[in-house]
Structure formats: C-alpha cells, structure tokens
Design a protein that fits this description.
This protein has helices spanning 6-45, 49-73, 80-107, 110-116, 127-134, 138-166, 170-194. With 199 residues, it is an all-alpha fold. It has two domains: 7-45; 47-194, Up-down Bundle (Ferritin). InterPro entries: DUF305_CopM-like, Ferritin-like.
Length: 199
C-alpha cells in the first residue's frame, strides 16, 4: 500500500501560506516593530536630569506657597486684592503640582522626588518660620504674606530658568516658562500692594 501524499501537500500548503503572509505583512510588521523601538527610545530621551531635579525641587516649593496661601485665606485679612492674589497662587500651583506629580509617576522617579522633598532651598522657609507666619493676623499677616511670597517667588526663578534653558521635556519647559511669566507678574502685584519693593 502506497503511503498517502496528503500530509506532504498540507505541509507545503501551510509553508506557502506563511510565505505569502510574511511577504505581504512583513514590511508592516517590521515597521511596527521599528516604530515601537523608536517610541521606547524616544520615551527614554524625553526627559533628562534637569527635568528630574526640577520636579523634585519645585513640587515642595509649590507646597509651601499653597500652605502660605491657605493661611492667608483662612485668616481675618480682609484686603480683597491680597485675598484674590493668594487664591490665584493656590489654584495655579495646585494645578501645576498635580501635573508635575503625574509626570513623576509616569517616569518612575518617586525615589528622586522623595530625596528632594527634604531639601529647603530656592527661597523656601524653615518650619519654624512658617509656624511664626501662621501665628500672625490682620495687617501683620497681610504684610508678611506679601513680603515672604515675594521672596519665595524671586528665589525660585533662577532654578526655573535653568529648566527652560537645559530641560529636555518640552511640556515641562513650557510650564516652567509660564511659571516665570506668572510669578514675575505676581511679584509686581505684591510690590504695588506693599507700596515698595521688598529686599
């Protein structure tokens, strides 16, 4: 009895079908793989050490400004312009912190964020200073808020400019430029409200 040639023909048919699929789909598959590799490489190159350092330092810096604004807004200070300024600082910096924390999570840099969170730099205040600030009321608190926030803004601008000049992640550089523009304008408001330029 002669062996059946069916298995051989089936095997040849499968090979031919695979060859046809690879011929037709091969370029698309290669393009997809290449695109995936390029995307992965691009994601790694999207941010650099300057971006990481900026996020780590700016988030706690913003947290102080938000805390100071909360103290002013919960106080007996009734100057509508100062209260409006404090509310805008709080809202703007909370929004920026939410976005910066999202980027930090996406980049997996929680350890860097934790490391920088302990630093007091770029115009930040020590806990004792913030406690004293929170104990004030009335005109003393109004004046302290404006003077301290002016100092807080002024001393972070250099770090923000460094991100603009040397950061790699375009959306963060754009946010940094907006920070410089907004905080410079807010410093002008503080000077007008104080009637002088703080040292």
């Amino acid at each position: 009895m002669r062996p059946s040639k069916k298995p051989l023909w089936i095997a040849l048919a499968v090979i031919a079908a695979l060859a046809l699929i690879l011929t037709v789909a091969g370029p698309s598959l290669r393009a997809a793989l290449t695109s995936h590799e390029e995307t992965a490489a691009s994601a790694e190159a999207d941010y650099n050490d300057t971006d990481v350092h900026f996020l780590g330092m700016m988030v706690p810096h913003h947290e102080q400004a938000i805390e100071m604004s909360d103290v002013l807004l919960a106080s007996d200070v009734d100057d509508a312009q100062v209260r409006d300024l404090a509310q805008r600082i709080k809202d703007g910096q909370e929004r920026e912190n939410t976005q910066m924390r999202t980027w930090a999570d996406e980049w997996g840099i929680q350890e860097d964020m934790e490391h920088h969170s302990k630093h007091i730099a770029n115009g930040m205040f020590h806990p004792e200073q913030l406690n004293e600030f929170a104990s004030l009321s009335g005109d003393e608190l109004r004046t302290a808020f404006l003077e301290m926030m002016h100092f807080h803004h002024a001393h972070v601008i250099n770090m923000t400019q460094d991100e603009i000049d040397r950061g790699a992640y375009a959306p963060l550089r754009e946010m940094a430029q907006e920070m410089v523009d907004v905080q410079t304008a807010e410093m002008g408001e503080m000077e007008e409200l104080l009637g002088y330029t703080p040292n």
